[in-house]
Amino acid sequence: MAEAQGVSEATVRRIWDAHGLRPHRVRTFKLSRDPEFVEKLRDVVGLYLNPPDKALVLSVDEKSQIQALDRTQPALPLRTGLVATRTHDYVRHGTTTLFAALNVLDGTVIGSCKPQHRHQEFLQFMEQVDREVPRRREVHLILDNYGTHTHPNVKAWFEAHPRYHLHFVPTSSSWLNMVERWFAEITRKQIRRGTFMSVRKLIKAIMRYLREYNKNPEPFVWTASAATILRKVRRCKEALDAGH
Predict the structure, then answer these.
(1) In terms of residue numbers, what domain contains 165?
(2) Overall domain count for the chain
(3) Which of 58, 212, 229, 244 has a Cα at 20 to 30 A from 75?
(4) Given this model, what pLDDT does residue 172 score?
(5) Burial of 225 (0-12, 13-18, 19+ CB in 10 A)
(6) CB 47, CB 104: distance < 8 Å
(7) Structural domain contains residue 141
(8) C-alpha atoms less than 13 angstroms from C-alpha of 51 in its C-beta half-sphere
(9) What whole-number distance in Å separates Cα of residue 41 and Cα of residue 173?
(10) Which CATH number does the domain housing residue 152 bear?
(11) Distance between CA atoms of 133 and 103, rounded to whole angstroms?
(12) Is 56 contained in some domain?
């Protein structure tokens, strides 16, 4: 750009800084086309900001296809003045799926690893949730629209357990499901940093992290109102329309 405009690189940088431009950074986004986007957004955000009295709010989802990756050579540990290192190539030893239910109020997580990602495994996990949450409490579940959560057998299970109330996030809006934030944490702190010679060892590491996390959980605090989010979505749509 400096060469094309006949100015110095420092001048270009000063102009970028003055206008808050960061051309080296790119973020991804996707606007939901859910016709009930506004209604679902307000419903879920309302649960975060004003949870019902004497009821639990659980953010539920699955992190599928977690790979047990083993490095081709032993990793070098953290040392004075040097970061930990490992080979760029790896060997795959299989995958697992982590089912998780984040308690929005206190930050605790109910979790379980399953070999597959079907409605059968989801029902097994819901049986676990049902055993671990207090019997007399109403439970509000925040879910995405994946077919696993809407299978006829799953619907029948919820009909037989009327204390559960389902709240679905809009399509293409996984960022509204707070458990995704916890998935990012376990990925960064445990899964991505690990070396696993088998799926069994991967599952063992995940469950160890879960136990340690639940000893001192840190709840995520939702601060954005539905109105604030809708304004941002509106500006994004206007920018897209202007670009076309």
Answers:
(1) 34-243
(2) 1
(3) 212
(4) 87
(5) middle
(6) yes
(7) yes
(8) 19
(9) 9
(10) 3.30.420.10
(11) 10
(12) yes
Within-domain flag for 138: yes
8 A C-beta contact, residue 103 and residue 139: no
DSSP state of 51: P
Q: What is the reported pLDDT for 72? A: 75
Residues of the chain falling short of pLDDT 70: 243-244
CB 12 within 8 A of CB 1: yes
58 contacts: CB under 8 Å, gap ≥ 6: 101, 102, 103, 104, 110, 129, 133, 139, 140, 141, 142
Q: How many of the other CB atoms lie within 10 Å of CB of 3?
A: 9
**Residues 190-219 as b or e (16 or more Cβ within 10 Å = b):** bbeebbbeebeebbebbeebbeebeeeeee
* CB distance 92 to 69 below 8 Å: yes
Residue 84: predicted pLDDT: 75
| Within-domain flag for 191 | yes
Q: Rounded to an integer, what distance in angstroms lies between the CA atom of residue 117 and that of residue 206?
A: 17
- Let me know: does 192 contact 203? Beta carbons within 8 Å: no
Question: Hey, what are 89's tokens?
Answer: 């190539």
pLDDT value for 244:
57
Q: What is the residue whose two structure tokens read 């998935």? A: 183
Burial 65-93 (b: 16+ CB within 10 A, else e): ebebbbeeeeeeeeeeeeeeebeeeeeeb
From the list 67, 66, 62, the residue with the least C-alpha distance to 146 is 62
This prediction has a pTM of 0.84
- Quote the strand ranges of the chain, DSSP E: 55-71, 90-103, 109-114, 138-143, 164-168
**79: helix, strand or coil:** strand
- Pairing relation of β-strands 138-143 and 55-71? parallel
